[in-house]
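Record type: monomer structure entry
Structure origin: computed from sequence
Chain ID: A
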Amino acid sequence: MSMPKYEQIMRPLLNVLADNKEHRLAELIIGLVKYFKLTDAEKFQLLPSGKQEIFVNRVGWAKTYMQKAGLISTVSRGVYKITALGKQEFKSQNTTITTKYLRNKYPQIIDFIDGWKNKPDHLNNTPEPSTEINDSIDPIETIENEFNQLNYQLANDLLDKVIANPPQFFENLIADLLIKMGYGSSREDILKNSGHSGDGGIDGVIKEDILGFDKIYVQAKRWGNTIGSKEIRDFVGALQMQNATKGLFVTTSKYAKSAIQSLSKANNTNIILIDGIKLAELMIKYNVGVTIKNVYKLKHIDEDYFIID
């Protein structure tokens, strides 16, 4: 059998997990190799980078899409299990699972497939993962598109990791990110009255100058629910109690329109809102919670070298 595409792996992957047991990724890959009857040559065929097997890469994409649809859950690092929703889908054996099918049946995956609406313009047309060569696309554009797709998946995974950790971890993360961005010199320099979820309104203070003449007050919310206008009004009130004119509100979720609109009523107070989308992008940009896996150098001809005087 030829190498299956990632969409072709989705249904068999769900079938392997249908025994309701916890499975390590390595176990799933072994089961799928047997299902597709891959030869050793196919099994060990590598990506152009030479860093990973193509089949393992495609299993990873299939797993990610089904996780985002709610059919598979992560039990612990590298360990997965079918969900109640996945059990229901397992019964539909006559249906082929594709990206389009998941999108139409499971609305929770739409954000992942379409991308966040507020993400930067250069990511708005990020394609779905593909191993097919499109002759109509410039090779450089292909590289950039694939790079953006990988970063997009990484951002999703980062948010999942952040949300899975306790509030204190989130506040420490925000402090670490701010330090990497050039604000403050240590966590202790930024964090204030932190360490519990009901923290009132101010989690930290950023000194914009070395003497602390100008300060930015920080609120960090590790929430799954959308931030509404009430939370913003409470933050504005906390800033006013401090006679503060600048505030930074960071959350792992999103902001409701009413929350954004309420900023117009914050007279003489400049407040910046960072949602989960922007937070993940900043973590990637400033290397917080991520590490460099590979570095590729794209070279071109040095025309000056070939100029003969």
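Annotation 1: The chain has a mean pLDDT of 83.
Annotation 2: Residues 1-114 form a domain with the Arc Repressor Mutant, subunit A fold (CATH 1.10.10.10).
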